[in-house]
Structures are given as C-alpha cells and as structure tokens.
Write a structure and sequence with these properties.
With 292 residues, the protein is an alpha/beta fold. The chain has 10 helices and 10 strands. It has 2 domains: 197 residues, Spore Coat Polysaccharide Biosynthesis Protein SpsA, Chain A, CATH 3.90.550; 77 residues, no CATH class.
C-alpha cells in the first residue's frame, strides 16, 4: 500500500446487513485495502441487533468511522453524507457486497495528476453468481456516459461542488441523474476496465426489497431525471415517456407506478427552484442520443 492511498477513503452505505458487511471487510483486507481509511453509513438499520452488530463489524477495521442515520434517507443522501464526512480527495464507493479485485488499477488514478475535468472513474463490474459483466469486454478505457454506483472512484471536491446526489431521489436513477448534471457542466466520467469490482450479490435471510416503494421511486425519478435537467417543455414529456415505457414493460404494482408518475410531474414544479436545465439544443441532443 503506497502513500497515494492516504488521499482516498473507502465509502460504504449499508442497512440491516452486518454479516454481509463483515464478509466484505474481510475480503477487502485480503486484497490489500486494510490500511485505507473506511467510512460506513448505516442507513437506520431496523432489524433487531443489526445496528449494534454493524458497529461491532466496523470496529474490526483499524481506521474506520461509522455514521448512523436515525431516520432512513436512502442511498443517494447516504453517499452525500459519506462524501461530506470523509475529508479525503477521493472516495471509493462500493456496495456492502462488492469488492475490488486489487489495488493496483485504482492506485494508477490517485497517484497520477488527476485531470481537472474528470469527476468519476468507474469500473468493470462482475456479478459473481451469474458471471456476467456490466460492460462488454471489447469496450476500451475512455470517457463514458454514467457510472456504477457500487464501484466507482469519486473526486469528492468535484462531485460535491456540483451538489452531489439529489437527496430526495432516495434511490432510483440517482447515478444517471448525477452523471447528466456533471456532463452538462463539462465534467468527465472515465471508464477503466482494469478496475474490476466483484459483486457477490448476497441477500440476508430477512431481507426483502419493498417493490412497491421501488416501483414508485423509479416511476417518479425517471421523469425527474429529465424534467430537472432540461427545459420543461422537453424534459417533462421525455421523462414521462420513459416512466410510462418502464411501467409498461414491468407489469406489477400498477398503483405505486401511477402515483410515482403523478409525483414526478408534481415534483417537477414543487422543486422548480432546484432545477438545473441545460439549453434547449443540448437537451434535444440528449433526447436523440447524440450527446456522447
């Protein structure tokens, strides 16, 4: 481990999964990350004993800090909290069941002069159970359009200078929405296939995703991603079409999806002062897929 890693912290949001977090921390140590600062955000764990167990797990790391929310915020604001607290130039975001394969490829980016226009370096992401990669093996290193939330190196001052994630997104399209804002301001997201992050996709026995909440948030945020970042006359219909199309192909939870779509339209105007619309011509390029 070189001195370059003093500029980086590992940032992990988690909730109700102490056993999975422990397995991840053990793998991180085995792969050479044991001397890196660690920050963990417990997003209001509610299962009996989970919060105390997470505290005990984090205490096994020699240079770790635990932040706990008393009210659940979701991973968008959880990542903001970690970036505000870590105090390092770089933050390596991983999920509580994801582990980088090695330190070397990451070190390359933090030890060199980091380009002033670069905000995020994202990875090749391997789903271990299925052995599927997130990006095709023929895609070379270079600029890309979005990032993998469970495996990306953030230049913290740049990302937080743009306001970080929109915290009220909670989760659902928060990564492409942040990517959109960064790229509209001329910041670069860089893909490096040499950074391999393995996603072990563990689920604890008591863990069940609330798909009613999930479908509500995705229906809502799919509208807001466009309507908050484009002129409303383009962004609102563009986001609406995306929301309806997604709801049509995933035929479940009709009522939460309808409520999510209505909420997306309403919050476009309720959050009007927070909008960051790009010029109309640029928005048309995004809608037509010409914005690379």
């Amino acid at each position: 481990m070189t001195q370059a890693f003093a500029k980086m912290a590992i940032l992990i949001p988690t909730r109700n999964r102490p056993e999975i977090l422990l397995a991840t921390l053990q793998k991180l140590k085995e792969r050479g990350f044991g001397a890196v600062a660690l920050w963990v955000y417990d997003d209001c764990s509610t299962l009996p004993g989970a919060a105390e167990a997470i505290k005990n797990v984090v205490s096994t790391w020699p240079n770790a800090r635990l932040l706990r929310a008393e009210v659940r915020t979701g991973q968008a604001e959880g990542r903001n909290v970690l970036m505000r607290a870590c105090g390092t130039e770089f933050g390596l975001f991983i999920d509580d069941d994801s582990v980088p394969a090695a330190t070397k490829a990451i070190e390359k980016h933090i030890s060199a002069v980091f380009p002033a226009n670069r905000a995020i370096v994202t990875c090749q992401y391997l789903d271990v159970p299925s052995q599927r990669f997130s990006i095709g093996a023929d895609i070379p290193e270079g600029p890309t359009t979005t990032f993998q939330g469970g495996g990306s190196l953030f230049h913290v001052p740049t990302v937080m200078g743009m306001g970080g994630f929109r915290k009220w997104f909670v989760y659902g399209y928060e990564e492409p929405e942040l990517s959109m804002r960064l790229r509209m301001k001329g910041f670069q997201i860089w893909y490096d296939p040499a950074i391999l992050v393995e996603h072990f996709h563990f689920e604890s026995p008591n863990e069940q995703r609330d798909y009613r909440e999930y479908d509500f948030l995705y229906a809502r945020n799919s509208i807001l991603m466009s309507s908050m970042n484009m002129p409303v006359w383009i962004g609102l219909p563009h986001g609406f079409v995306r929301s309806v199309r997604r709801s049509f192909f995933l035929r479940r939870n009709a009522s939460p999806k309808i409520r999510g779509t209505v909420a997306g339209i309403w919050q476009t105007f309720a959050k009007w002062s927070e909008r960051t619309p790009c010029p109309g011509g640029e928005a048309i390029e995004w809608c037509l897929g010409k914005r690379k």
